[in-house]
Amino acid sequence: MAVDIYTIPEAASRLGISPRRLRRLIGSGAIRVLRAGPHIRITETALSTYQSRPQKAVQP
Prior knowledge:
- By secondary structure, this protein is of the alpha+beta class.
- The chain has one domain (5-52): Multidrug-efflux Transporter Regulator, Chain: A, Domain 2 (Orthogonal Bundle).
- 45% of the residues lie in helices and 17% in strands.
- The chain is built from 3 helices and 3 strands; from the N terminus they run E-H-H-E-E-H.
- A 3-stranded antiparallel β-sheet has the order 1-3-2.
- The longest helix has 10 residues, at 19-28.
């Protein structure tokens, strides 16, 4: 079974957000990542899990 793994720019593009915003989500623990030394990779499962979570409404 193959697992799709993305770099930060690739994953950010799939989510429609900036790489900087994705790094903030990773730092807050909202998205789980794989770390191998200085390299960060995000699985398709982690992206799907994040996308399926209810989003908080933004107050004006």
